[in-house]
Amino acid sequence: MRNTRPAPEPPAPLFPLIDAHTHLDACGATDAESVAALLDRAEAVGVREVVTVADDLDAARFAVRAAHWDRRVFAAVALHPTRANALDDAAKRELEKLAADPRVVAVGETGLDYYWPGKLDGCAGVEEQIEGFRWHIELAKQLRKPLMIHNREADHDLLAVLLDEGAPETVIFHCFSSDANMADACVEQGYVLSFSGTVSFKNAHELREAAKLVPDEQILVETDAPFLTPHPFRGAPNESYMLPYTLRSLAEVREQDPLELAKITTANARRVYGI
Ligand SMILES: [Zn+2]
Ligand SMILES: [Zn+2]
């Protein structure tokens, strides 16, 4: 969705929070100064740390640089499933190097996206995506780092490939958007489910049912900024400082105290990312 509205007012602070998945470059950060400004806005409302996620090689280089510029930033690197057709030998070598950086806390976002093939020019096809996903799974296992999954309309194949390949110790489904059945299946495998602003969308009834049944130890919260701005700010730009809005929506759905849920998700982020 294009951002046509002005930036929303900051929410009331909620401490402590970690944004488990954002894209600082797509939010407009370009250098150490703009990264710090963005993190200052986040920190002012209790979001002390963020994981910035790459979807292509340029973004991966930037994510690692950003994580070295600012102590509050950690990185995740991979080629997005829609770009899996760019995973040639040179890309693999560079990703291996970047992913091994100590500031990189996950391999992602990888996975499967069955929405875009056929709609988006140059989008990787299903076979290429599955092959790329398998390669990223192996990389995560080699490095003993969490695997961060992007899943769009691919529930069945995602679980099948993970099972077939053998999942790494930690698997995070970023922006979990599936129903209660899929949530059950993921919980049973020990996967971690990260919820974004979509949980606050008016029509997201099935997703809220899913959010209710995730055990405390397996839940994270993220903005996926600049995308998926939470209700009632859809159409406005999203940024890590918006995370308390989503946390409060999620707490309401789960009938939990927001402060309690903030502590839980932050402890989980520290555990799974090792930060
Ligand atoms: Zn994604
Ligand atoms: Zn993302």
Walk me through the structure.
There is one protein chain. The protein has 275 residues and is an alpha/beta fold. The protein has 9 helices and 8 strands. Strands 1-2-3-4-5-6-7-8 form an 8-stranded parallel sheet. α2 packs parallel to α3 and α6 runs parallel beside α7 (205-212). The protein is globular and about 45 Å long. The relative contact order is 0.17. One zinc ion is lined by residues 21, 23, 53, 109, 224.
What can be said about this structure in brief?
The chain is an alpha/beta fold and 275 residues long.
The total count of strands amounts to 8
Radius of gyration from CA coordinates: 17 Å
What ligands can be seen in this structure? zinc ion
The low-pLDDT segments are: none
Fraction of residues in helix = 25-40%
The main sheet orders its strands as 1-2-3-4-5-6-7-8
Total count of helical runs of at least 4 residues: 9
Q: What is the ordering of alpha helices and beta strands?
A: EHEHEHEHEHEHEHEHH
Structural class: alpha/beta
Major sheet attributes? 8 strands, parallel
The span between the termini is 32 Å
Write down the overall geometry.
globular
Q: What percentage of the residues does DSSP assign to strands (E)?
A: 15-25%
Oligomer: single chain
**Mean pLDDT level:** 96
